[in-house]
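Researcher: Re-running this chain for the archive, since the previous output was lost when a drive failed. Same request as before.
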Amino acid sequence: MDPNHITQPEQANLNASIGSKASKLKTVPQFCESNPAFTVGGIRHIQFTLGDELAKAGAVVRFGRKLLIDEDRFIEFVRTGKAAKIAGGKP
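Model: Regenerated structure tokens:
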């Protein structure tokens, strides 16, 4: 028996426990396609400047080198004003 194999009943229990709380993880291009107010360059810029805050908020996660965006958490991050100032200005 493979210890890494999940049986169908185990998978069903896992799916039920996740339920509607499942994250909508998208790549940067996928996110920008479904949310045209954001550009790939803009997302890369906010990741560069506010990456730690985005990660703490659960708005972005890394999968190897790939940046994945949790759509709901990222939008909430922006809506709450945490991305109001991401660069520039005088100290």
